[in-house]
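Quarterly update from the structural biology core.
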Amino acid sequence: MILGYQIGVLYPGFSGAPRGELAEICGRHGFSVAARRLSDVDRDLALSTVARRVGSRRKDHLRVVPLDYRSPGHGRAFQIEEVLQQGRESAGSVAGARIVSTEEKITVEAPASGPEIAACMTLGRRLRDKAEWLVTHADTRTVSRAIEAMMAEVRGFRFLSRGSYILGAWDPKSARVTACLSELRHRFYDEASRTGLRASVVTVTDAGENLAILTDAAIDDTERRLLLLTTQLSAEARSESVLPSTLERRKRASRELHESIENMAWLLGWPAARLLSRAKDIRDAYALARSGKELVAPGWIEPETPTQERRSA
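Predicted structure, tokenized:
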């Protein structure tokens, strides 16, 4: 028997949910990593997130750029600039507003030099309001990252696309996932208006075509994750530029993939032995390395050429 989990967070009608309530539900069901992803946010992070999403290429000829802002009681700061155009070419930019975060609030101010620009100040106030909202509320991306952490903890496989996962129904962890998702749906989804956070659980019990579809999806997800780790290992082997934090993420990802394949080998069928062998090689390579210089790729992984390295950078 298989459980397929679908997290419906990327459809019209979801306008966010309180971080504290989401984190409390996830934590109560034992998903501490998911709870931390929901609750570990401050105004610095919220402002940085909003500014990054805005980007520097806007149709209104405004851009948001980070400032090296250091003063007591202040965190992150960004400058909002108006990009000047000369024909189709950029002719520089002029600062029109600043947005600064502190522990207590986010403020929109005039630029350090020069007058305010109305459009820049308006954008700054929009960014401020969105960042303040993100401090207390989780949007679709935040919820998705929390659910991904939950599924990584129980070693689930992605089913066809983001937001859907496969777990073995016999696994004791599946009961926790089911209970957590059911509570999320009950608390944050309005059945009548079909709005909010929708979480669904589908149980597949037959061994026919439905099982074959899940097997194909599990193999596809395993191959995708293996290819990603293989590409990363090929680029990072013997490298002096691999950060310790990057190495730790790779170790965790390769360990989780190996455990996922072990847990669901029966579903993967005959490809399971090959996939498990490759995953073990990658897991062991990262586990033995204390730095990028000590990272040795298995013989079946071809080293990247300089051209490939530039493309993957």
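The radius of gyration is 23 Å.
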